[in-house]
Amino acid sequence: MFGEQQRFVLLLIAPAALLLLLFQVVPIVIGANASFRDWALYNPRKTWIGFDHYVAVISDPAFLYVVLPNTFLFMVLSVAGALVVGLALALLLNRPFRGQKLVQTILLVPLMVAPVIAAIMIRWIFNDQFGIVNVVLEAIGLDGQPWLVQRWSAFGIILLTDIWLWTPWFTLLLLAGLQSLPKEPFEAAAIDGTTTWRVFRFLTLPMLRPVIVVCVVIRAIDAFRTFDIVWTLTGGGPGRSTELFSLYAYVHAFLNLDLGRGSAAAIIGGLIILVIGVVLYRLVDRIAKV
Amino acid sequence: MAMVRRSEFLPWLPPMGRKTLFALALAFICFAFAFPVLWLILTSLRPESGVYYVHRGTEFTLGNFAEVLREERIVEAFVNSALIATLATVFSLLVTVSSGYMLSRFTGPASRLWFGTIYVFRCVPYISWVLPLYFVTQSWGIYDTYTGLLLPHVAVHICFFSWLMKGFFDGIDPSMEYAAMIDGCTRWGAFIRVAVPSALPAISALAVLCWLFTWNEFLFALILTGNRVPMITVVMAQFVTEMGLRWNLMAATAVMALVPAFLIALFGQKYVIRGLRI
Asked: What pLDDT score was predicted for residue B94?
């Protein structure tokens, strides 16, 4: 039925395709089915209710005015923060100095820390009674803050934790990118006596652009679904003011035990990020070709 | 040869001042990045009575670690996490190396379709498929078992790693494989004996990343396991609510969870840096 080459091609992707089908496609289809039904513990018949769950999620003020703005704000600030710090560190590590290997190893530390552990550490550091931050603040005569029970300070701490966690990832990929750039343009610029800023602005940045764009796209898509650090740091609190989209779906499905509504929220989020993903992919394609 | 003068930061400073400033900035950055981990280690060494005043006091103890290791559930969680991480690494690589090779060496509708599929599924948020996966694993009878956690962990890497592997194979000249095939190698022979060995640096980089990712992963473990297969991240997150104020024990557990990841990363760092040129 197939030629020898087609058989080879199909066999190469068969295991991956099978796993993808069983553990991603099938669950998504079942989740879509659940999102149209009254799929809760008290209703064993799982009545078909059409788009009711979708309407409920979209008209939920908590989703519209808290969860979605939080998610987008988090995505933009987390990616921008990690990109700026990560790029600065990559540039720093790209010039030789004594102890460079040691500094590089220290800067990569957050990469090996599980988000859950990072969240536990930060929670302890910002503990309102015994955390070191408040101890230091009180020692220099300022008032300690209940960091994690105020909306914006809690959001800021979640953001800070995320940037701390993901900066090394940017550093690593951008450093690899920097080291594979051709040397000649930089030598020419040095002979001409170009200033550091102009070298960065007109040589490094444009040549590094494809790598930057790929990193940003990958990271933006991941930041959208952040779950673990928020869950461990604030659990979405105080109240529900730091809930992100993944948390919203999880809370509805497993804490309120309304699996239909949770699935609907998960699918709405999935559609949003799919649109963003396709737009970003177009962008990458255009920039990579320039 | 012409003298090439490096352009420096802050040219108005004398060289000594520039060097000092640079060293200070470096020290500050390293401190900021390492501080949370150092603080965690310090907390884990404090006895119960001293944990609320970590910054003062001089008593230190290894008792927290001993106490944590007496908890059967925590030890079990460490074993499970290590086992799942290792198995997931092996299976993910087996599956994605061949899929990335296909994407790199063949063009045409099949390849384009597979690439599109991978990109789309890479974007799907975990919660959108792990949430319903909870019913799926239950109805297949693999909920809260090794299989039920391992296979989704393999599936999650397919998209990203196939994409990375494609990039690596794109950077390897295929003429060696053609030469092998002219000399009588089959396609499989050319793939396994020629292409895979030359991609080994990249494969090692992915192995390190995959192990770390699985060891650190939380959401899958939270949703797909119950009491029978405790995973270390879930056990730690439960600590925060159940053990409440016992920060010394929590810190000790977290430090022990950091050690394997730290060793793997330290050992694999050079492969990752070399292998990740995208």
From this structure: 92
